[in-house]
From TrEMBL:
One of its GO terms (biological process) is glycine betaine transport. Belongs to the binding-protein-dependent transport system permease family. Gene3D superfamilies: MetI-like (1.10.3720.10). The keyword Cytoplasm does not apply. Residues 18-201 form the ABC transmembrane type-1 domain. The keyword Aminoacyl-tRNA synthetase does not apply. Its main location: membrane. The chain crosses the membrane at residues 21-45, 65-93, 147-163, 183-204. This is ABC transporter permease. GO terms for cellular component: plasma membrane.
């Protein structure tokens, strides 16, 4: 059968895999965002601490995804657990780095003005610094999401959820009638999901970043 016939016959399974793929990436991005921003908040005031945080998270990113998942399998088993841990770790670097850069780039005079009117350190952080640092933080989240979309497909190696199962089934049956259709369908679905997520981030940026800051 041709590719379009394959999609027609397998669309329910593809939709289920796409939902699991998007859900895994979204949930891991939420966790990575919370952890990454907290690390940025904890380290941006210190040069060495910020450099250490960036170096540590960048070192994680150098580990091949297949090797990372393979190392996690003996520790947490197959399935969702190694997928969630690996994706969360891989998503940290852009968020940590952009959080540090964004917070360090806040105009010191604005922070001093907030301090002058009696704001506490936490109030300045939550009401002045983090809102002004939000554009680069959001950019880091977008970059992380695009990376995780592709890395999540490797999770099928550990029986993880998502479109990687479709891709791996095609690769493992190369030479069969639908092998190429399986790989192509899974790959295109990952690309479509990545574009949809990125469009959602553009919308979030327009809704949460004032026009003056965007400019």
């Amino acid at each position: 059968m041709n590719f379009w016939e394959y999609l027609g016959n397998r669309h329910q399974q593809l939709l289920a895999d796409a939902y699991q793929h998007a859900s895994a990436v979204f949930q891991c991005m939420v966790v990575a965002t919370v952890i990454g921003v907290l690390i940025g908040v904890a380290t941006y005031r210190s040069g060495w601490a910020g450099n250490l945080a960036t170096l540590t998270t960048s070192s994680i990113l150098t580990v091949p995804s297949l090797a990372m998942i393979g190392l996690l399998i003996p520790l947490v088993g197959l399935g969702v657990a190694p997928t969630v841990i690996a994706l969360t770790l891989y998503g940290l670097l852009p968020i940590v780095r952009n959080s540090i850069v964004g917070l360090r780039g806040v105009d010191a005079t604005l922070v001093d003005a907030a301090k002058g009117i009696g704001m506490s350190r936490w109030a300045r952080l939550l009401r002045v610094e983090l809102p002004l640092a939000w554009p680069p933080i959001l950019t880091g989240i977008r970059v992380s999401t695009q990376m995780l979309m592709g890395i999540a497909a490797i999770a099928a190696f550990a029986s993880g959820p998502g479109l990687g199962n479709e891709i791996f089934r095609g690769i493992s049956s190369l030479g069969s009638a639908n092998a190429l259709n399986q790989v192509l369908a899974g790959t295109l679905a990952v690309i479509v999901l990545a574009l949809l997520f990125d469009a959602a981030y553009v919308l979030i940026g327009r809704l949460t970043i004032p026009r003056g800051i965007r400019a």
